[in-house]
TrEMBL record:
This is PTS beta-glucoside transporter subunit EIIBCA. Residues 6-88 form the PTS EIIB type-1 domain. Residues 116-470 form the PTS EIIC type-1 domain. Its main location: membrane. SUPFAM superfamilies: Glucose permease domain IIB. It comes from the Bacteria. It holds the Pfam family PTS_EIIB. It is a multi-pass membrane protein. The keyword DNA damage does not apply. The keyword Membrane applies. The active site is at C28 (phosphocysteine intermediate). It comes from Oceanobacillus neutriphilus. It is found in: Cell membrane.
Length: 475
C-alpha cells in the first residue's frame, strides 16, 4: 500500500498538538524539525506507530520526526495546507514558558540556546556547501581523467561556482542567523559583505595600518569564517529592534536603516569580527590538539557512538566545526571521516541482515537501506528501520565503526572539502583517499560479517511488518 501523504501530514499536525502548538517547522534531508510551544502536548507514542514515520526524537529544542526520503513531500504539504510558519526559528517558547511557568535558566540552558542558534543558522547553508563540495568532487574526477579540461572556460566557471559557496560563507551564515533572530537579513548581509568588499580585502593584503576613531583595525581575511558573521548578525538584530522602537514613525524610514548600519559597522570591524575570527581558530585548534593526543582513536570513538548522536537529534552540531576546520586549516581529520565510516557501518550491517534473513520483505528493505547509507549517505531508515529495531546489528555498527574509524585516523585520512558522507564523496579526501578507501572497505565488510555472526530475531512483529510494507511500497 502506498503512503497517503495528505493523511500522514494531517496525522503529524494532529499528534504534535495542532497548528496552534507549532511555532515553526523546518527540515533536513530526512527529518521534519518542529519548534513546538509545548512539547508535552505532542503524542510521541502515537507518532512512532504511524505508518511512514521511522522514528521520533527531541534534541536541540527541536521535535524531530524521521521520515526518510518522504520528508520533502510531507514538508511541502504541511506548508501548503496548514497555517504553519516554515521559517527556521529557534526562539520558540518552551513548554514551561507556554504554560506560564518560569523559563529555565543556567549555564546548561544558555549553552543549548547558543548551540541551537548556531545550528539553526548553519543548517540552510550546509545543503549549499554539500552541493558545492560535490561539484568540486566531480571537477576533481574529470580533471584527473582529462587534465587539459582545467584550462577551459567551462571548467573554470563551475569551479568559481563551487568556490563561491565557501568564500562568501559569512554572507550565507548572516542570512541564516538573521532568519533565526527574526530580523531583516538585508542588514546583516550588508554589514558582513563589507568585510569581503574588494577594497577592504586589498587593505588586508596590503598590510597597511588602518584605524577607526584612533583605534587600530585588525585587518584579517574574513572569507570562509563562521563566528564573525554570527556575532555581526546578532548585533544587527539588536540594533534593528532598538532603532525601530525609539525613532518616531515619521523619521523611522529614513534614519533607522542609516543608524543600524552606521552603528553596527565600527563595532563589527573593531571588535566582533576579530573576536569571532580568533575564537573560531581556538575551537579548531582545540580539536586539532585532541586529535594530536589521541590520534585515530578519537575518530573511532566518534564513529562508534554516532548512532546515539543521531538518535538524540544532535547530529547537526558538528556541521559548524567541520566548516570552520576546513576553512581554517584546510582539512577535517575527525568529523567527516567519522561520519562517513558510521554511514558505511550502518550500510554494512544492513547487508549482513540481507545475507542472513529468510524474510524476503526484510531482505529487500535491508538492501535498499544499505544502498541509501553507502551511496546516498542517508542512514535514518537503516538505523531506525533495521539496525535499532533488530538490536544486534546495532552492535555490529558500533564495533565496525569504531575499528574503521580508528583505522582511518591512524592512516591519516583527511577530508579537504565538504561533501555528503557517502562513498561517492571519497575524492574529497584527495591525497589520503587510499587511507579512507581502506577504512571504508574494512568497515563495510566487518559490519556485515559481525551482523551475520551475531544474528537477530528474524520474525518481525505485525506492527513492524506494516511499517516495512509502507516503506517497501515507496522504494
Amino acid at each position: 500500500m502506498a503512503i497517503d501523504f495528505d493523511q500522514l501530514a494531517a496525522t503529524i499536525i494532529e499528534k504534535v498538538g495542532g497548528e496552534e502548538n507549532i511555532s515553526s517547522v523546518t527540515h533536513c534531508v530526512t527529518r521534519l524539525r518542529f519548534y513546538l510551544k509545548d512539547k508535552e502536548k505532542a503524542d510521541t507514542e502515537a507518532l512512532e506507530k504511524t505508518p511512514g514515520v521511522l522514528g521520533v526524537t527531541y534534541g536541540m529544542k527541536q521535535y524531530q520526526i524521521i521520515l526518510g526520503k518522504n520528508v520533502f513531500t510531507v514538508f511541502n504539504k504541511i506548508v501548503k495546507d496548514y497555517n504553519v510558519d516554515a521559517d527556521d526559528n529557534p526562539k520558540q517558547n518552551n513548554s514551561e514558558a507556554s504554560e506560564g511557568r518560569t523559563d529555565k535558566k543556567g549555564i546548561k540552558n544558555t549553552f543549548q540556546n547558543i548551540l541551537a542558534f548556531i545550528i539553526g543558522s548553519v543548517t540552510p547553508f550546509i545543503t549549499v556547501v554539500y552541493g558545492a563540495g560535490m561539484i568540486r568532487v566531480m571537477l576533481t574526477i574529470i580533471s584527473s581523467i582529462w587534465p587539459s579540461v582545467e584550462e577551459t572556460s567551462t571548467f573554470m566557471m563551475f569551479n568559481f561556482l563551487a568556490l563561491a559557496a565557501f568564500y562568501f560563507m559569512p554572507i550565507l551564515i548572516a542570512y541564516g542567523a538573521a532568519r533565526q533572530l527574526k530580523s531583516n537579513p538585508a542588514f546583516a548581509i550588508t554589514v558582513v559583505s563589507m568585510l569581503l568588499y574588494p577594497d577592504f580585502m586589498a587593505l588586508v593584503e596590503g598590510q597597511i595600518d588602518v584605524s577607526m576613531f584612533s583605534i587600530p583595525v585588525v585587518l584579517a581575511d574574513y572569507s570562509q569564517t563562521l563566528l564573525p558573521a554570527l556575532l555581526s548578525a546578532y548585533l544587527v538584530s539588536k540594533l534593528e529592534k532598538f532603532f525601530y522602537k525609539v525613532i518616531p514613525g515619521v523619521l523611522r524610514t529614513v534614519f533607522a536603516p542609516m543608524l543600524i548600519l552606521g552603528a553596527a559597522m565600527p563595532i563589527v570591524v573593531l571588535f566582533l569580527a576579530p573576536i569571532g575570527s580568533i575564537a573560531g581558530e581556538w575551537v579548531v585548534q582545540l580539536f586539532v590538539w585532541i586529535y594530536g593526543i589521541t590520534g585515530g582513536l578519537t575518530v573511532g570513538i566518534l564513529a562508534a557512538v554516532f548512532p546515539f548522536i543521531i538518535m538524540s537529534g544532535m547530529n547537526m552540531m558538528f556541521a559548524p566545526v567541520m566548516v570552520q576546520s576546513i576553512a581554517s586549516i584546510g582539512f577535517d581529520a575527525l568529523f567527516r571521516p567519522a561520519l562517513l565510516l558510521h554511514n558505511m557501518a550502518e550500510g554494512g550491517a544492513c547487508l549482513g541482515v540481507a545475507m542472513r534473513t529468510k524474510n524476503k520483505e526484510l531482505r529487500t528493505e535491508a538492501i535498499g537501506c544499505a544502498i541509501g547509507c553507502i551511496v546516498s549517505g542517508v542512514t535514518e531508515p537503516a538505523l531506525y528501520g533495521i539496525n535499532l529495531r533488530l538490536k544486534k546489528p546495532l552492535f555490529a555498527v558500533m564495533i565496525s565503526g569504531g575499528i574503521g574509524g580508528a583505522l582511518a585516523g591512524f592512516l591519516g585520512a583527511k577530508a579537504f572539502e565538504m561533501g555528503y558522507s557517502s562513498i561517492l564523496a571519497l575524492p574529497i579526501f584527495e591525497g589520503t583517499i587510499i587511507a579512507i578507501t581502506i577504512a571504508v572497505a574494512v568497515t563495510i565488510i566487518l559490519s556485515a560479517i559481525i551482523t551475520v555472526i551475531l544474528g537477530f530475531n528474524d520474525e518481525p512483529s505485525i506492527s513492524t511488518m506494516n511499517k516495512m510494507e509502507v516503506q517497501s511500497a515507496n522504494k
